[in-house]
Fold:
Amino acid sequence: MVQLAIPVETGREYRVTQKGVNSAHELTQQIWNSREDLRQTIARVEFDKLSFTAIGQALRQCIGKLLDSVGDGDDEVPESFFREMADQYTTNLQQLSAKIRTVVDRHIPCHLFHSDQHVAGFSIGPVEFLPRSDWVTRYVKNPDELGYIRDVQAGAMPMAELREMALSVNRERQVCNAWSILRSLRGFEWIATVTTFDHELTQSHKKASIIVGLALDAIGLRFGVDEARRFAMAGRASLVDEDRIATTLDGRFLRGTSASMPGIGGKPGGLTAKMQADKPYYDAVGHILSAYMRGRQSGRAPHLIERWANALYWIGEARREESDFMAVVNYGCAADGLSGAGGEAKLITEFAQTALNPRGDAVSDQHRSISDAVTTVYREGRNKLAHGETPGLFEDLSGTRATGDVLLSALFDVTTTELGSLVADGDPILDVPEKHAYRAFLAKMQKRV
Structure:
């Protein structure tokens, strides 16, 4: 059994009752709920530690004054003591928070294009993507570490040999660092870098991973579903390799394998031109992601940007999903979120019609109408599957899934370009209440003709 205590500093603490711990938890929760800047930049577990330490320090700093102000036999604690405690706690919490928040470049290994495509490094807003060799040249500053890494990458030294050197008794620090860097990069051919400002390290990594994931999903929307699945990043399981085994009634073993190939290849150098042609789209994505990170530094981004980011995440999940059942649900959620419809299929349809058919032209009989596509994906798809009206796990929903991908890819192509221009121009639409923002956004998309 461990006695209950509130920490003050290393090796010092105040013993308290369960009521005291409960009170500390209640104060911590109140501050957490009221301070969005802290929620955005510090992980919850780390914040709890900071808050309890700030309470313990405030007790230590104020207890002497309390003893001086309370006479012998006087059990009543003056109200001024509690006010001073609250002020001291706030000061301590600010100082402790400032100490653990720092500026770092977060590096997330990923798979994009095969090296024979000769795609140069590029940026999408706050995310810079560099081929592995370029990243090593830029970020590995120590010449000894750089030498070891280049030897391994050139095949002059096996990775196993560097590992043995790094784990030996008389190892050198540079050898350990080089092995650690290569182990982190693993087999990834690209590295995405995001700079996070004034974040605690756990929260910094979490936020950088999400931003890189959104950038990858945005790139994937310029490619087909099968190709987009091959964009992968460290920390997100989207490529699955498995061995399959079965036995027949007569005892024979049946074996099979399934492998997901990372990255996109093709005719050598063929993707360079495509990346250049798509640059205006990537610039628009970059404007939005930069605004998203700025808003999420201390609170939330504008409504349109928040909904765009959430919808992009849903689409990425849908495209990576093995199950048609879950993919259709994700596409439906993306359509609802992107349109700001709040679950009203009619509003989703109006949004899609405005984005994809701004002139209101009649749709050819050879193609499914936009209204039918929304009905298929949202009303008949997402709603009935999510509410259990349709048993979908073993059903063939590939047609509905394909409709969802076509619909959402087309919607994102339009909305990303239009929203990116709003952000780049600092349009006041972004700062008005959500319903007004959507009405203005619809009007802007309608003026495209």
About this structure: Strands lie at 5-9, 12-15, 102-111, 122-124, 127-131, 190-199, 232-233, 242-247, 253-258. The longest helix spans residues 398-425.
